[in-house]
Design a protein that fits this description.
single chain; alpha/beta; Rossmann fold; Helicase, Ruva Protein, domain 3; 4 domains; five-stranded parallel beta sheet; 18 helices; 46% helix; binds adenosine-5'-triphosphate; transcription; sequence-specific DNA binding; transcription regulation; Sigma_54_int
């Protein structure tokens, strides 16, 4: 039953009813305020935050239409959109009840009432009000967390033509609800793109939920992504909502989608196609409305050709594709990124640094950055910690030499085929046999590289 909690406002033109209500509710609730004049409602609501309001439907004698009640319901909801209003009427019928609920009332009480029934209804209404408060608090917290998490992501830097094309694509796509697939090597800024899309979308006030699919084990995938009911399996001590449900109305960022096994791809596809999920241990599907942004550092089209990624899933997630170029293909961005990270870390480590020497900057320009912007960021942080002078020096950067762009190639022979073979061997070694990266570096297609490898028996 109701613990002595909750504040109630009862509005009825019949003083006897108000008196009876006060007497009935006083032992259970913290405060009962009554008024026979509905015009008092705004003033009373200004003074006190009521949890539940009991509102008569008809205030003029002999009136049975309920119009006045609906008028005051509107006023109450205008003042407090989260108000929990219970209509009271002696002339209640199913039709009016439905109309009242549609208009925003929470429930309906018929006069004359049974005491237990009215107390039970008010008790549920108080619980509803409490849940509404909790939801509001959680939404507020979520907003604050998102803003805090988003802060480091606000600076998305790049001046190169390739990055300008990415920024233009983000501007065009963000406002639409289209599913976006972001492709790019590790550390190129895929999550930055996802957050920029979210921040500029119509769903910006809802949740942004990021899931690293690569970090979820196969056995836990289904319950992690789709949730489970209590007792669905041995360890399911409590029910768990699916990530889709948590992200409902918001944006779901599925990172490392290329790492999903084929059976899990099938499950994900069903959820996306039907726009509903079914928790493990339940047979009741729940509708979900999310904007999907996916990312991968794999060559997903190549995975499709190799039968390792479902084509139908790819078509569902790549309404628009955004390609993030690796840093070595936009070396003109290195100076501005250097400046940016230098300012951040000099402040963090309280170092009074002027900048970076021309030699050191040249070293950064020549390096291939296999870890892309993330690697540059870490290299600068480390250099700032190590630096003992006014400017970052070449020696402050410990870059793995093998990944430096080779300025010249030993010409032991002038045979062009032999030179080509040597260069390809060198580049393949440099990228540990990664065909995509090697072909990009060589400026040829993957197919051409394969053809040449076959030709030279590599
Ligand atoms: N253009 C950029 N401007 C500023 N910072 C950037 C830029 N690109 C990447 N970064 C920074 O580099 C780091 C890596 O970025 P992010 O996590 O978005 O990359 P990713 O492509 O999602 O990486 P992974 O594939 O490893 O998950 C982050 O700290 C990010 O803030």
């Amino acid at each position: 039953m109701i613990k002595k909690m909750g504040k109630i406002l009862a509005i009825d033109d019949n003083e006897d009813i108000l008196f009876a209500l006060k007497l009935l509710l006083k032992p259970y609730v913290e405060l009962v305020v009554t008024t026979s004049d509905p015009n008092e409602i705004p003033k009373l609501m200004g003074k006190e935050s009521f949890d539940v309001m009991l509102l008569d439907m008809n205030f003029t004698q002999d009136a049975i239409s309920g119009q006045e009640g609906f008028y005051w319901l509107d006023k109450i909801l205008e003042i407090d959109p989260g108000a929990v209003v219970l209509f009271i009427t002696a002339y209640g019928d199913a039709e009016k009840a439905v109309k009242a609920i549609k208009a925003g009332a929470t429930d309906f009480i018929l006069k004359p009432w049974q005491n237990e029934k009215i107390i039970a209804t008010i008790s549920s209404a108080l619980k509803l009000r409490e849940s509404k408060h909790e939801v509001d608090n959680l939404k507020q917290k979520q907003k604050e967390y998102t803003e805090a998490i988003d802060k480091p992501f606000v600076d998305f830097i790049g001046e190169s033509a390739k990055m300008r094309a990415v920024f233009t694509a983000i501007q065009k796509v963000a406002k639409t609800d289209a599913n976006v697939l972001i492709l790019g090597e590790n550390g190129t800024g895929k999550e930055l793109v996802a957050r920029a899309l979210y921040r500029n979308s119509a769903r910006k006030d809802e949740i942004f939920l990021s899931i690293d699919l690569g970090s979820i084990s196969e056995s836990l995938f289904e319950s992690e992504l789709f949730g489970h009911e209590k007792g669905a399996f041995t360890d399911a001590k409590k029910e768990k909502p699916s990530r889709f449900e948590v992200a409902h109305n918001g944006t779901l960022f599925l990172d490392e989608i290329g790492n999903l096994s084929l059976p899990l791809q099938a499950k994900l596809l069903t959820a996306i196609e039907r726009r509903e999920i079914t928790r493990v241990g339940s047979n009741k599907p729940t509708k979900v409305d999310v904007r999907l942004i996916c990312a991968t550092n794999n060559d997903v089209h190549q995975l499709v050709s190799a039968g390792q990624f479902r084509q139908d899933l790819l078509y569902r997630i790549n309404t628009v594709e955004i390609h993030l170029p690796p840093l070595r293909e936009r070396t003109e961005d290195i100076p501005i990124l250097t400046k940016h990270f230098l300012a951040i870390y000099a402040k963090k480590y309280k170092k009074n640094l002027k900048g970076i020497t021309a030699d050191a900057q040249k070293k950064l320009q020549q390096y291939l950055w296999p870890g892309n912007v993330r690697e540059l960021q870490h290299a600068i942080e480390r250099a700032i910690i190590m630096c003992e002078s006014d400017n970052l020096q070449s020696e402050d950067f410990f870059l793995t030499g093998s990944k430096e762009r080779c300025a010249d190639i030993d010409m032991e022979t002038y045979n062009l085929d032999q030179i080509e073979k040597n260069v390809i061997t060198k580049v393949l070694k440099q990228y540990n046999g990664n065909i995509t990266q090697a072909s990009t570096e060589l400026g040829i297609t993957r197919t051409s590289l394969y053809r040449r490898m076959e030709k030279y028996g590599l």
